[in-house]
Write a structure and sequence with these properties.
The structure is a homodimer of 512-residue chains. Chain A is α/β, with parallel strands linked by helices and 512 residues long. The first copy, chain A, is built from 16 helices and 24 strands. In chain A, the strands form 7 sheets. Chain A has a 5-stranded parallel beta sheet, covered by helices on one side.
């Protein structure tokens, strides 16, 4: 592995391998009550809240707003306290005129009207049924997100003299070489004890057709782009594996016009319950209720809110710095949970040269440079005028939280990030990349003051030790958010966690 | 191979294999002047037609209308004669209220407003640049066509007790089993003379990650859906190979609302030049010009049209039955060209159960039954109300022109076709398929009187013997259409052939 291999792919594969496979993962989710694809059967049917029962929700991201939406329907009086001056949390889209405020820098986004960057979540898998359900319920228009584009590229510094190759060519080469070798081994009798005579014959037929081998069972020169060595150097199997991963499979979706249309749809239901610009400083509970102390970040005024119950969606990175009255085990869980790091950089180009000049419509070109990948927009194909492509997306969580690409880029000023993204991305489109560049914007999640990281980076060990303590109902307090789910780093996790938390809370409130 | 394996996949792979690979095919196209993806550089710059020069075009399909469009721009006086009562040819979409007239049957389509079936072409590859260009030039709105859906299914009568499997599971199993076997052979030293020590180590790493093998280099039980035998029985490598085929790769497009929007866009430019309901009975030429005799199919009246030059896009199946004054070699080529067969069946269902109940958004479920596949609509995802899915698409051309599925279905009455499609497709959606069915429509191309087949089914041998004779400029006559291209059965071929034909015609006309 090179240092800068995009970790999403290997991290996911490693995680699956360690956990005993996707089936084991799903089993774990089922056992723990956090839904896999088939478990979401519609929104919770919460009814019969005790008259006057009040719930305080901390954080107006998707988890917090969904909790408020469903608890209000159930009859609770809900208030949300939100640190930022907007709702949505990581469900976030930046457009021309927006300001991005990181620790140490401020950017004014220059994109043309209609163009945008989704710094956080940007794609919805077909099996994320909770997100898809609420998009339908709240009227969020979804369009196709192009995930697997055979005509996008793969770049490795060590292969083909550093020249990027089309994924389709590498893919055909990979299966051609693998098929030729397996056929050779089969014909040499090397696997005669491992497979039956009948399966051997079928395997040879499979290798011939799948690998497009010739009559001599050789991967033909006429098809070949590179040697076995070239193919192996690109590590294209990581890309092939990436596309096969359950969370990365086709068909995928995106909200038309920006991911924040989901957050806005929730906000249309609950914005009147939200107090913005509110920094929580202390969370206390006793037998009678919960009390939250806060400071208004605009006026500096201190305040206090109370309720019967509390749903806290504050990220663990920030929650760990707040005085919270919960069990020591839960405090330990909050402190034990590391967050992954990620940087996204949007680059607005004068025209869609990747479409017109390269016949690339959506999808990703991967590289082992720090930017990890560049990704082409799925919306407005064939459009005229400027368009925004994703110029970097290094990502690290879980077993591989320390993506050097993410740390390198987040350590840079926004200006230097853009320069690095332009330099590295030029490998794919050397003639156009810098020449067509108009403006850029970036978000380094570890520098966003309201979260200080990208998303929860559970490892198998930390999950085994702390997960149940994190999600348990503690007196009158329950936590929710992607960090409290088995779908870490996905909106689906935030929503499932929220539904799970409020269902348990409602059960206790009803029993009380 | 079972009798009813959908032939598209194996036929394409076989063709590539026989021709020496895709590279060889492209080389052939380049040499012969028929463009591969990189050759289309914009529309032809034909200028300076001799004042008053007239061109007669036979057939108002895409090839004929493009010829008329570009020749008119070049200054020629153009007339088109069309047999049918509509323009478009195989660029054809049927909707509620339409009548489908085959030899021996008539169907009235019952689909709800907005629903449709594309009986002919239905998807546009990203590298079909001529089609994409004219869609842009003529303002045809394109949307994504979901080609590869990991969550769609594969069914084989002989595997898994006839129970369909999700493609994603079979795919993961396939690579798991293949990786485990190759790793075993590598570790046994069976390939030590074939690969270097360094490549062997890399290959083992590749097998471990690509196949998601455990530390013992075994494909884990936790991931496995079926045994090696199960996996081989499904012949899933054919599906994997299908998706890797150049013409079948992602990203693909479709005109929003129906393929005929392309034909209608051309018709908006040239419809005033078209004489409909005109059956050509004789094509003659001499040193002075061309003369075409015809009969008006509505009035029975005979007529004659003359011009300086002729572009004939009449399919070879029909042209072979007309008295045509061309060389014996061209007549032999016309007669030597067999046509493939295909049937498409559209089934309107009350609701999108494949989306709501199966999380299948677009893509194809393959079967080795005569229907070949069913395909889910790419447009209007999450829509409420009735939707049309493709209930059958057996297809045979080229080296495998005799798809039994196509012949079996086309031999049936439209009613029996629907019954067969419902019966066979139920294997994928047993509880819903018949229960949700509203109405259906089908087109058996061999029974369409104006073409008597689906599209040209060149073999390598027939192409070697006859292709150049078919496309050569013969006096004042040139043929055009998908059958005169290396992109047989694709609209791209029809358009490229047309551009090639009129460019050569214009050269001769200018020199004359």
């Amino acid at each position: 592995m090179t240092d800068f291999t995009p970790p999403t792919r290997r991290q996911l594969l490693t995680m699956i391998g360690k956990a005993g496979g996707a089936a084991a993962l799903y089993q774990a989710m089922t056992v723990l009550g956090h839904a896999a694809e088939s478990q979401f059967r519609g929104p919770p049917q919460l009814t019969g809240a005790r008259p006057g029962a009040r719930v305080l929700v901390l954080g107006a991201g998707l988890a917090g707003m969904l909790a408020a939406y469903e608890l209000t329907k159930a009859g609770y009086a809900v208030q949300i306290l939100e640190f930022q001056d907007r709702t949505g949390g990581r469900n976030y889209t930046v457009r021309g005129g927006d300001t991005i405020t990181e620790l140490g820098s401020t950017q004014k986004v220059q994109f043309a009207p209609g163009n945008y960057l989704n710094p956080g979540p940007w794609r919805l898998p077909y099996h994320h049924r909770t997100v898809l359900h609420y998009c339908q319920e709240l009227g969020v228009e979804l369009e196709h997100f192009a995930q697997l584009n055979h005509n996008a590229m793969v770049h490795s510094k060590d292969a083909y003299g550093g020249k990027p190759q089309r994924y389709r060519d590498l893919y055909v080469d990979y299966k051609g070489h693998v098929a030729e070798l397996l056929a050779k081994a089969l014909n040499a009798g090397a696997l005669d004890t491992a497979v039956t005579v009948e399966d051997k014959a079928r395997l040879l037929e499979a290798m011939r057709e799948w690998g497009v081998l010739d009559k001599a069972m050789t991967y033909s020169k006429g098809l070949k782009v590179g040697t076995l060595r070239d193919t192996l150097q690109t590590k294209v199997w990581e890309t092939i594996g990436f596309y096969a991963d359950h969370t990365m499979q086709t068909t995928m979706f995106q909200p038309k016009g920006g991911m924040d249309h989901i957050g806005k749809a929730f906000a249309a239901k609950v914005a009147h319950l939200v107090r913005l610009n509110t920094r929580v400083t202390r969370i206390a509970q006793d037998h009678a209720g919960v009390t939250v102390n806060w400071t208004d970040t605009q006026t500096g005024a201190a305040g206090q809110s109370s309720a019967d119950w509390l749903v806290c969606t504050i990220p663990a990175t920030v929650l760990g710095q707040i005085d919270v009255q919960v069990s020591d085990a839960k405090k330990a869980a909050i402190r034990a949970l590391p967050y992954g790091n990620s940087v996204k950089i949007g680059l607005e180009m004068k025209r869609r040269f990747w479409e017109t000049d390269y016949a690339i419509y959506g999808g990703h070109s991967f590289t082992d440079q720090p930017i990890g990948l560049i990704s082409y927009p799925s919306g407005n194909w064939f459009g005229k005028g400027p368009a925004v492509l994703l110029g970097a997306y290094p990502f690290g969580t879980g077993d591989n939280p320390f993506s050097l690409g993410g740390y390198m880029l987040s350590a840079m000023s926004p200006e230097k990030r853009l320069a690095a993204a332009l330099e590295q991305g030029s490998v794919f489109h050397p003639a156009e990349y810098k020449a067509e560049f108009l403006s850029g914007a970036s978000v380094a999640w570890s520098r966003m003051p309201w979260i200080l990281g990208c998303c929860a980076a559970w490892t198998e060990d930390s999950r085994a030790a702390h997960y149940q303590n994190l999600v348990s109902l503690d007196g009158r307090v329950v936590l929710a958010g992607e960090h409290c789910s088995y779908y870490g780093c996905w909106q689906e996790g935030a929503l499932l966690s929220s539904l799970d938390a409020i269902t348990r809370l409602h059960q206790r409130a009803s029993a009380a």
